[in-house]
Design goal:
By secondary structure, the protein is an alpha+beta fold. Helices cover 33% and strands 33% of the residues.
Length: 156
Amino acid sequence: MKTGTITNLQPAGGYDGQNGHINTFRMTIQFPDGMVTGEIGTKSQNYPANVGDSISVDVSQTQYGVRFKKVNPQYAQQDAQQGQQNNTNGKKDNKSFAMAYAKDLVVADKIRLGDMVGWATVMEDWMGGRAQIPQPQQPPQQNFDPPNELDSEVPF
């Protein structure tokens, strides 16, 4: 988001979008780091700002040229706060991913079923930057060679 002062504003036509007709305006904004000219859209017949007004916009380069998207600073602050809240939801995503991966390790016979939750916790900590993952140990091989009763009766 950049904030600047509108130095030029002219109608530039419009188009029919999925949300109805959008009127476009050619706008030049003086930002602290230089002047930028681009296009901005609104549903209003006249743009709801004037030359000399301060405006906050997101600036993007598209195949059609520079586009401005007006940002209400109040909403931008709310979006930033929601972004911080979404980062806490990432912990849930890490936990789900870690549990699914640990389950896959059990299915692949890389870890034992009883170790799945422990491994998931270690992986979740690792994804959160809180720990390193040790290498999984192979489950012990279980060889079942039943004793041959005939072997004990051989006389020699």
